[in-house]
């Protein structure tokens, strides 16, 4: 068994002047504008504390040939400063066997206790009365490879819940909301709605690569988490008996339609009460978290946030308010910190 | 005191061949395509049971001069049939003093107990801790003319909650949801959110005329319920002491932004957590009710509804499901019928 | 074995005054505006020659309880005239065992020889060199239930190829175009492109019901032909050995992206050269056929067609030109009639 | 009485190498990417001649704690060069009592004589015949605090008339156009149209902060100038007698609708002839000025301007034409310079 | 010389029961839903007083073969009533030599004095100082065939100025506005702007057919008035000497861009001050006239108009206001009736 | 006769430290942010191998006065480095007589044999049977000034075929596709479709300036290649006899509509089968080439391309695939390299 190599230097501590010799994720690499025949290399290096840009000027071809995006690399170099931010001038870069590192050092993760979150989710899915849905979840939970990935997957690359455990945090929060809303309106099937809340994004366990950094996988870019998730559900359903086809279509419809409208990626718009509710629950949980994470960023003592390019506005933090708690420190069920 | 004239014939009972002599609302009147110098008159007559089209061929000018849209009119005539639906051939039409009729006979109304709904709303607004918001609601509730209108107002002309009491049903349902969601996320001001749920549409008490039929008022069409509602809130605030201006702007922002985006009528997009939540709560309650009301319509034994032109799709009722309960028969708090 | 009931009266021949006693498809039924307690029934009846509207006034409840949309019904009644078009006044309507009718009498179908078209398609898929794609097609063709449905399925409900055999006509035409275009640009995988042309719409064999009339199936409305098609492909792939996962994702991507952009139903936009080409081939074949079918309609001697609501324009037939040939009479490979 | 501190160094003169010791507006401050535990500060400093970026490396926390965005600050430091533009390296920064500075030194202002412009506007509003509108303006003009702000307010932060006096220049120009157009079409109420021209943007006196730099106020961002303006008008109307409610709604409608369509911020679209005209007059005056100000920018000897990102095109200056006059040097009534 | 056949019966006077024998324009003809082998014919007949729908049941093929859309036809038949409007049941229909009718009886025309309007336009174009533009207009005015068509052409088929002389009314009104606005802003070329006002729609003299009814011509539908107008201008320019090419491009740019944005048909967006102004002048004149013509329609005593489908709103006429004057009775220069 | 000045230094070879003394195109020049009274100059210099940014600090006014954008200039200076890319610090810059340079050194060009491509195009247009179209092409080909420009023109400034000869490569490829598709569908006029393929973009020979660098011409920006192309076709048509006007409108319609929809610049949408086909052929050829050129860019060993801003996605190159061939090395007819 190989020993784990300890990591001591983290991106957030890399001040100009620091000499670097440690492991990082090679998040991006780009060979750019050639000059005098020699390419040079722009890189982005990351670990769980953040990202730093770097550049390599010498031996670039050998270096580049030996590494690939997503590799764990040992970097030798120095931190300089460029445009008011630290920049890592890379002297050496070699790939390291990922089996010899502690992946948790390299990718941001929720501060919450993942096992506790998962237990709460289990207790919700075990409260389901509809036999075939109950069995479907048991089939998922009985697959340890799936459970391992499900507990680690992020819910996004950037917008919200973009960290290890983010998918679980998002699904649990939505399932709790689904439970509350199902009782508010007559004619809503609670079991179906909770199932949709837990499974609508299940394809994200394969849509993303998140071993050492969060990025889209090939199948994620080619097929989307909607299509992958449907395939994952169908695969489990084929192992079950007594599955009512009409009900299955209603569950799949929740996955198909949860983005609400075609222009946002819904294959069909929501056509059942449960699908309409699930779409809004998803909107609420993803938007509220995207905004709270944005509000919690640097310089949070200001009344207004910077301009949020995707949402197209500044958000109001308040003249006197303390900055809101970071989402990752929030219990998705109670909304209060541990 | 004038005696109330009893009404005995209702639109839903007007079969071809019926001789008519009773009171109706003149919901619409249109002088169309002249011929041989004489105009003729298309009318829509309504009462609380529905609408019927009618036409008058004779003495049209005298008739038309003596009545206006929205009047209570005594109609003499006969029901014939036109395009598979009954049509009222009007022989005489005279306006009747609205003080002599029971308005409840002329306009659809919720089946729920309006006073009980209002009591629940009161208990919610009285649970508010923030003094100035508490005082603001007391100022509203202390105004009997306002309360009378608020308990009667519809929430829309057609899409959802388009009946007497609809605004109250909608606001109570939203306030209950607001109460549930406020506890789910950290950093949300529950009092502000509940206030927004109750007041976001308050301008609808003037945006619509709903004495005898639901239609837009002049100021409703010219200014919108958003602008009217802001003016109504400002008027009460001017009677209160110790109102913190920053907080007032946050409450007004909830009214200003509750439609979510400019293209749907929001003056500004939601820029606080409460504004984002309120927008989605409004979306959920209005869309779910619009869909349930649509599902409950005629021929509800079919698997799919007809095509919903505004929402752009058919909705699924299910192969075996009974039709969902009518919204008006639903308790907005528990989602169950009394 | 039950004898087939012969059909003698066709919709196109139903002139006012005709007494009717024959079989039709009950394409639509709607219980509308009640009067005097009795519902009445609007129906649309169809056979392969067209559609006619009808109405029933008496015994409506018993009638309605005994039939469902899509049933083959025996109609007794008379043709009257309504708004310049014949209308069938229905006196009796009873469902007939569909096993006792010749389905071909009830639904429009291509005039081309379906078996010949299918043979041409087979010869194209058998020219594929890539082993796993070749095997995938053999798996489809080896399933007689699938082949039967595939040869019958329409490509749409209304816009283009909306007739029995339409899917096959459309796929063959696209496969021929794919073959031509694959050679025009370097770097395009011909086998993949042809496979995409044949399979991109394969889910339509289940998206539609087309036993007696063309309408969406429940799973068609809830999941779309894209999702159904992916499931059909995946099911066959699981029976094959040596299937390269990366290549499979590229084929599925063709199905996922063939609508071109999310607002037109593409789950992901086309991200490979083959996907971009397939999208345009689909656009060309569906638009050209939609326009040609529209040009061929009634009153085709006029220079301009009527306004095409979906495409938003009039089309030019020409001052002197004869009307173009009907699509169904056209050989999709050569563009010439047999 | 405190003496005014004279300002001698202006942004436009800050060449690399200059030693700086003078007063500026702290237009923006951002604490960014931490390193080695110490934040550093990016600032934007401005005065009436323009803006310059700056950076502080030392004692940042003390500095930042003592100042806020919008403060007048005394800056000690040196001008260096960064990316081809001067950059101010800030050594010291302390807030200065704004009562001790001449605000005119810190914010760009129209070159026109504000009092003369205002006189012209007065003579237009005094030509109004409708009593209640005439009285409304007298109520505004009788409020010296309002008049002071109205004469100083800008019409925008960036696009057009973004300088002290800009709102007055814009409103006067529009009122003159309104006067010309009111006579061109029959049925247009000149008094109402002129009132709309003068008051449509009146909320901008509070939507912006423009003491030392132009930025949105909190209420500006939360409520918009439309809502603020309506409140300002309503407040004056409550002091007047004999105000016809229907006419008031028509004036408010001009404010509500002047952006033309909901997606551009109109609460309601224009529904009267005056509202339609006012919208176009606003479009003309704001677009023409935005373009002329853009054409007048640097390097104005070129045939085409740079690409205008908001308007989405290059504008043509002409092969031989001299650059057009700067807007601020133009008399809005005659279009010619003094 | 053939004698003119007098016309005595006009559409507006065709009451049910009237026996008809007179000349009309065959505005539309459609062969629809065949029955029993015989087509039947829906027609729209028009004259200057309006339109009436008609239907023919017998001898349809012979009738249809002998006439074409746009023909002047002698109609024999009777007026019946259909859906509350008169309908002409056509017994005979034969084409009549258009040389034997007075075209003015068949198509709506402005009530204004066309020659006086044209004189005013001439005086405006003769006030132009730029030699080549002056010469260009002289070339147009020297072509009597052009002038005849220009004085008759409508400006639209339906939305606004849809009558004989409408193009002239629209261009004169715009030229007067252009003259006023050119002086308001510095740097605007008055001669160019007036030329654009007069010529921007000049292609409409060929885009429409308006001998007997207003409809698009073939080249109108295929090329648009923009492209036709450019060709008409270029043709005259080729006859002139000393035409500066850069200036010509600026004039053509006015034609190319006057619709403002590509989605509304502008080939390029306006890129000069004159082009921006011309676009808004066109918007004002077409929208104000569209609204005024709509307000003047039937039942104009109501406070609000019917819903305007293209503009998407109701317009406000006022509680007490008399209906506005019809546009055609308005002097486009002064806005007052003669 | 003046001697050609040889060029030895190319942009792609300008490494930091290089001393420069050679000819370049002054592609862009911008006078920016003044300081201490002296402007400074940002420039972009180009030749056929690429572009390099430069800056001049001294004698800027004299320098700027003596050169204009598009000039061939002799540059003296040094290459430094700025933001990881070489930057040319310009010491001297003087315009050089373009007659003394070899234009081919300054602008990228296709690697294909232009004369051979043109021969193939000729053989296609000479296969046309319709006399007037055949004559129209002979009129174009008989004009040597036109042919020279047509063989050199690019098809775009940036997106695709943005090099000398690009228009010819694009038109030939489209004409070959047109020939293939014309035979696929019945009722398509092959001669018209091929003529449209060759002439749809013919206005690009004047829309762009491409003597020394590719940029829009004034008339290109003011009128667009559509309008210019129509004028070029009309000019040749006026020299021909026996031209059928209806057919001419159909050809012009192909030019007018080839962008498909107004929002993409089509003056009218395609209204004939040929116009619909031509639009898609154009889409295919421009998109496929844009994507292939983008895929061939730097760092092409990666599985996915960078994000394509205009097309809004990453494109998939494949895990193992070699980069696709550059478009310019591809025979547009066969899709294979020479």
Kindly describe this structure.
The structure is a homohexamer of 338-residue chains. Chain A has 338 residues and is of the alpha+beta class. The first copy, chain A, is built from ten helices and seven strands. Chain A has a five-stranded mixed barrel with strand order 1-2-3-5-4. In chain A, strand 1 and strand 2 form a beta hairpin. In chain A, helix 2 packs parallel to helix 5 and helix 5 packs antiparallel against helix 6.
Short description:
The structure is a homohexamer of 338-residue chains. By secondary structure, chain A is α+β, with helices and mostly antiparallel strands.
List the helices and strands and how they pair.
The structure is a homohexamer of 338-residue chains.
Chain A: E1 19-35, E2 38-47, E3 50-56, H1 60-66, E4 72-82, E5 85-95, H2 114-125, H3 131-141, H4 144-152, H5 166-182, H6 190-199, H7 204-207, E6 208-209, E7 215-216, H8 218-237, H9 245-257, H10 273-295
Parallel strand pairs in A: 3-5
Antiparallel strand pairs in A: 1-2, 1-4, 2-3, 4-5, 6-7
Helix pairs in contact in A: 2-5, 5-6, 5-10, 6-9, 6-10
Subunit arrangement of the protein:
homohexamer
Biggest interface, residues from each chain: A-B, 43 and 42 residues
Write the element-wise H/E pattern of chain A from the N-terminal end onward. EEEHEEHHHHHHEEHHH
Strand order of the largest sheet of chain A: 1-2-3-5-4
N- and C-termini, Cα separation of chain A: 37 Å
Q: Number of helical runs of chain A?
A: 10
Number of strands of chain A: 7
The share of residues in helices of chain A is 25-40%
Radius of gyration of chain A: 22 Å
Alpha-beta classification of chain A = alpha+beta
Uncertain parts of chain A:
33-37, 321-338
Mean pLDDT of chain A: 87
Shape of chain A: globular
- How does the major sheet of chain A shape up? 5 strands, mixed, barrel
Kindly estimate the percentage of residues of chain A that lie in beta strands according to DSSP.
15-25%
């Amino acid at each position: 068994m190989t020993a784990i190599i300890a990591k001591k230097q983290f991106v957030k501590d890399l001040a100009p002047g620091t000499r670097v010799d440690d492991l990082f994720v090679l998040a991006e690499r780009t060979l750019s504008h050639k000059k005098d025949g020699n390419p040079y290399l722009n890189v982005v290096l990351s670990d769980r504390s953040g990202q730093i840009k770097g550049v390599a000027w010498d031996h670039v071809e050998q270096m580049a040939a030996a590494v690939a995006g997503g590799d764990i690399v040992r970097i030798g170099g120095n931190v300089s400063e460029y445009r008011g931010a630290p920049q890592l001038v890379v002297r050496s870069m070699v790939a390291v066997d990922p089996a010899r590192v502690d992946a948790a050092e390299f990718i941001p993760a929720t501060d919450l206790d993942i096992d506790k979150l998962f237990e709460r989710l289990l207790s919700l899915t075990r409260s389901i009365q509809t036999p075939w849905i109950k069995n479907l979840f048991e089939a998922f939970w009985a697959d340890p490879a799936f459970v391992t990935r499900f507990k680690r997957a992020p819910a996004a690359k950037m917008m919200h819940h973009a960290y290890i455990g983010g998918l679980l945090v998002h699904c649990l929060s939505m399932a709790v909301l689904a439970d509350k809303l199902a009782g508010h309106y007559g004619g809503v099937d609670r079991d179906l709605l909770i199932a949709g809340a837990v499974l609508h994004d299940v394809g994200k366990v394969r849509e993303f690569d998140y071993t050492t950094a969060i990025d889209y996988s090939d199948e994620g870019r080619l097929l989307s988490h909607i299509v992958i998730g449907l395939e994952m559900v169908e695969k489990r359903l084929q192992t079950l008996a007594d599955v009512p086809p009409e009900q299955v279509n209603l569950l799949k419809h929740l996955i198909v339609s949860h983005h609400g409208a075609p222009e946002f990626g819904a294959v069909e718009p929501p056509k059942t009460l449960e699908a309409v509710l699930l779409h809004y629950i998803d909107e609420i949980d993803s938007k509220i978290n995207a905004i709270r994470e944005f509000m919690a960023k640097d310089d949070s003592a200001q009344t207004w946030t910077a301009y949020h390019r995707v949402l197209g506005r500044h958000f109001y933090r308040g003249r006197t308010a303390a900055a809101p708690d970071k989402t990752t420190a929030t219990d998705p069920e109670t909304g209060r910190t541990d």
